[in-house]
Structure formats: structure tokens, C-alpha cells
């Protein structure tokens, strides 16, 4: 999978950078000896850390820069500052040197810098950030989780196209089922925009041979009712953060329960292997790597607080996408859709209906919703 | 608390009605001998079930009707059908016979029938449905979770007023902290509507002496960052269903983990008392009773699939609200706000800003988001 694959790493981005970042690279390099890396960051600091990481050392070249984007940087600040480790990491993708960029830096800043350099794909209204959510059977792809603060029906269709290709590439699904997040599963539910989005999704989905399941509700995400759940960035961001909070609460309650008495503690000790299993399944670093979809280049956003294992997993997401036909498939689908869309929008405009594309809003506002 | 308190019960609403309903009444009556009940439903059926429930029998009078609202009924159907157990249960509140109505029937139907008979409170734009969400410290009040499919800034302010009074009445808080759900906690985050809502919330909150914490994110709900979380019905419904799904998933993973090996099972057995504790804390029936806020009368919606204990808890919510100054406090705050609002809206209109109230949309669409 990783033969001849070169990845661009923002070595200075993340709460535990560059230490956790380089250790993550070392983990991935150890398991994928063919992979190569361009590490963007402070030469002296990186050289010092690499001394103890032979696999990373052998697989990497360093591109020196002392400029970094602080974790609390505003997107607008990051966009004005060229030559940072984040900026250069994305430039390596733009220049075709690397197949994907992985960064644990500030999400809003990364999205803004990535969008500024790579631009939105031809025929796409807006990019989106996607998350992989654990389900009993595997994972559910949810997008947008925060690249935009609102999305019109046409943008939601774009998200469905990207989410489908993403699920195929990352999970090897032949025909992912697509769901549109709503307050009920019946077609009559929700506000006008969401019902119009479903109408377009069925119309365009038929052209693309997409498996459009229909509306899904919030609980369907964790149930894995569909492989892809499409929603606007506002709802998606709030829903997933609320769910993460609830999952953490249950874990906290469980810990309390298992330390509530000596007997319970003994039980917890006996069950510890099983409980470790549980911890591993809920560990965000095992489904790490939010991906910016819809740009002319692959950019993987790792959790800011990621550890080495989490960052290695984020690299793996980038490697799998880069060695898949993801980019091509999205481009093809958007092309195949162009005429159908122009037609539908003309009809809609004639009948005074919806369907018009909205202009791109200020790039600096992008990714503001993401955590 | 329940001295001289009379509650109106829709005995035929719910997946396990009337059995679970009457057993719930019996449980509550046993713990609150002063409480009285009007049971709406089929006399013969209810008499037969009451035979085994002495506490419920002594505290109840039956109002006979054979008409019911099916669990899959559309709001519009329920509204056209007078004389159902649901209709009559709400009528008892309208006529001043009962202090609150409790029903486990179809949410959309109940909301529509309740709104048709009780109407929205003077000075309020739209009613809302509220949920109590468990936190490490207790509960967080979240509204709207589905009475509306979208809400403008003025409606969100209404929700804050009702949520504050609800938290005071139900949890005895002196000055609940109010949060507005958004994609980030900084004031610049989110779309125009949500920022305008925060502006109004701070403006009006100052007049009402409200403790406005500011924006909160999804994970803040389970963390209990604020006592009240205000959001629109679309986002609130999806966020809470997503969180419920995630909590159920963790529980399922835990069960798997604790049955993964004989050792784990032995441990689970030893820890069973602690695990029962956990189950109890996560059991929805322990925080049962979504309340319809903003009508001229108290209507408590119990989970449709509730058991006897869950319904008794829903009755308890109604009893606590009915014996509190909740209704008066909301009415007073709306009155105190009227002049400030008129002024602000005039200014806004003059400067071409937001702040206008939207007309009530078709009542039949109400509650459609709620589960």
C-alpha cells in the first residue's frame, strides 16, 4: 500500500508536538518500511528527537523552518504567515512532492491554510471535514463536522458524494449506504432545506448509482444504520461533540461504579482485560484523523492532543486515501453531475424553486466550527 | 408537596398502556398518599387493572372514553379527534380540574392537541420541549429538543427564560447558569442567527438578572458546564439522539467486554452491584418526563416505551412543577421583558437589524421533531 508513498508531516503542530508527532511517524514507518516522509519543522529540534527513532530517521527528510502556527491561532493569522511548518507541509502536497499532508495543528488554521493553497475541487461548492464514528459493525463516516457553519441543499449533496468515495476508499465498501441527518426518518420531517436536500440527493444519487437510504436520526449514527451520514457543519459539529461528551460521561460513571466497593474493585481487576478492550474501542486515537474533503489535495487533521499511536493512525488514514482512487472518484462524480445539476438548477430557477449554488463565503471563516 | 394536588393521566397513551401507566400511578400514589388522579380511558379495562392496585384505586377517579390516539398517529389526525383519552386528559388541565397532565402518547400528537387546547403563553413566540440530561453533578436542562424544526434569536431567548424557571423549579437552583449551544465557546463563532441570539440573551438577561454563561459546545452538556443549554429544536433533537445512541453503544461495548472471557464474567459478577449503579444512572426512566414548556398549562410527556417506574418519575416531574412557581415566574419574566423587547425591536427595525418575531407556524407541524 505504501510503496513509493511520500507523506508531508507538520512536525510542529499539536499539543505534544514535535515529540508525539515524530514518535507517531516512527511507529508508522516501522510498520510500513516503504513509506517516506517530509518532516516540516525546526531542524535542530527534530534531529535531536530523531536520534532515538531509527525507523523515522531512515524514512524521513527534514525541511527546516522555525516558524510555527500556535495552537490558539486564528485562521486569518495563519493564512497571513507563510513559511510556517503548517504552511510548508501543505505546500509539499500542492507542489506534488507528497501524496498527503498530516497535521495535529489548530483545525481552523489548518483548514484555512489548506484551502488557500489547494483550493476547492472543480464543481464543488464547499469543502467539508469528516469524522469516522465507531459502530457495532465498524465505522460510520459523518460529514460535515465543522468546515462550515451552515450548508444549503446543494452543499449537502456534495458532502454525500465525498462521503461515499471516502467510505469506499477507507473501509473498502463497494456501495456505501448514504443517510441524511434529520429529526425523523419520514420524508415529511424537518425544515424545507433538509427536504429539498433529500429531493436533490435522490435525483442526483440516481444518476451516480448512489445507495440513498433516506433520512436518519441522531441515534442511527452509532447504530451504523448507514455507512455515511450527511449533515451541515453546525449540526454535525454539535451532535458529535455532544455524543463524545455522553460517551465520556458513561466512562466516568463506569469508573465510579467499579471503584465503589472493594468487591467491585476486585471484579474490575478480574475483568480488566475486557475493560481494556472497551477502552481501546472507545479511544479516539483509534479512529483518529479528521479528513478535509473537497480540496485539490489530501489533508489529514489529527486530534490536537493526539499521542504517538493516534498520530500514526492519522498517517494511516492519509496513506490509505492517497493509495486509493478517492480523489479521482470524487472528481469523476462531480463531472458526471455537472450537466444534471445545471439542468435541474435551470428548471428550479424557472419554476422559482431552490437549487441555486451559494457563493463561497470568506475562507477565513472556514473550519471555525471544528474542534 | 402533593397536598391537594390533582393530576390528569392519559391512561391509554404509551407502548405499554394502560398497564404500565396504572402501575406507575400506583407507585407514585403509594409514595405520595395526598396526590389525586383523574384517569382518562376505558372504564372496564381500567377497573379491571385497578383491582390489583389499591393505592391507585383510592387516589383515582376514572373518566370513561373508548377513543384513543394511536402511537403512530399524525398530529393533524389527533387534533381532529376530540374525546380521546389524550384530548380529555389535557382538557382536565384546561378546565382547571387538574394541575398537570401526564401522557406517554405520541409526542407530535400530544404537542399538537395540547397546543390547540392550552395555547401559547402570552408574550411567548413558540413553546418548546425540554429534556433533563445527566451530568456528573446532577442534571442539565436542554431545550428545545423538538417542538420546532428551527428557531430564530427571539425564540431562543424565550427558551432561556423557560429553561431557567424550569431549572429553578425542578432542581431548586437559585440562579441557574444559562448556555447557548454553538460550535465554539468564543463569541465570534457560529452563524449570524446564533450570535444575534447571544446579543439578545445578554441584553434581556441583564434585565431579568439572568446568569448568562455564554456559548457552550456539545460536550459541555454532559459536563454540566451550565445548568441550562438553549438550542433550536433541530439541533437539540439531533444532538440528544446522537448522544443517546453513543451512550447505548458504550453500554453494548461494555457488555461485550464483560462477557468476553470467563475471567471477565467472574469480574462482572463481583462488580455487579457497581454495574447496577451505572445502569440506574444511565436509565432514561430515571430522568423521564420531557416537559412541554410555554403553554397555558403543564403537560408532561413520558417516554412512549416507559415502564411503571419511568411513568411514576414523569408524574413526579409534573407534581414538582405544579407545586412550584414555575408558571408564574415565566409569565412575570415575559411581562418584564415585553417593554424592553418592543423597544429593542423598534430600534432593530429602524436600523434594519434583526429582532422581529416570527409568526407561529402551523400547529400541526409542531412536535414533529420529538421522538
Automatic annotation (TrEMBL), chains A, B:
Pathway(s) this gene product operates in, as recorded in its UniProt entry: Lipid metabolism; phospholipid metabolism
GO MF term (any one): phosphate:acyl-[acyl carrier protein] acyltransferase activity
Cellular-component GO terms for this entry: cytoplasm
Enzyme class, UniProt record, top EC level: transferase
Keyword Transferase applies: yes
Alphabetical keyword list: Acyltransferase, Cytoplasm, Lipid biosynthesis, Lipid metabolism, Phospholipid biosynthesis, Phospholipid metabolism, Transferase
Catalysed reaction equations from the record: a fatty acyl-[ACP] + phosphate = an acyl phosphate + holo-[ACP]
Coiled coil: none
Subunit structure and binding partners: Homodimer. Probably interacts with PlsY.
Family: Belongs to the PlsX family.
Name of protein: Phosphate acyltransferase
Organism: Candidatus Phycosocius bacilliformis
Designated gene of the protein: plsX
